[in-house]
Amino acid sequence: MAYAEFLENRDAYTRLWEFYQEKRDRFLSLIAESRFEVIPCHGTYFQMLGYGAISDVPDIEFARQMITTEGVAAIPPSVFYSTGDDYKVLRFCFAKKDDTLMEAAERLCRI
Known about the structure:
alpha+beta
């Protein structure tokens, strides 16, 4: 019943992409001055950022360092690869409150 009621409001799901695009664009504008490399992503609420210009440590280690030193969590994509390939990239979720995005961006720009 709840799902049927949700579907009655077409704007709730047909315009959801706009909500996430605004979030992504806001996040990207906030980290524009960082040393991270933006990797284009489509159809997701995750943004991939390259950190090869910042560090050469493996992505799992770099993600751990960011949590402990900056308080920003990211997902190391190598955990999804059966071979453990490491491309010096991290995955960040931008489906967050604006205050959270701003705080995370400030911290990322300090790295």
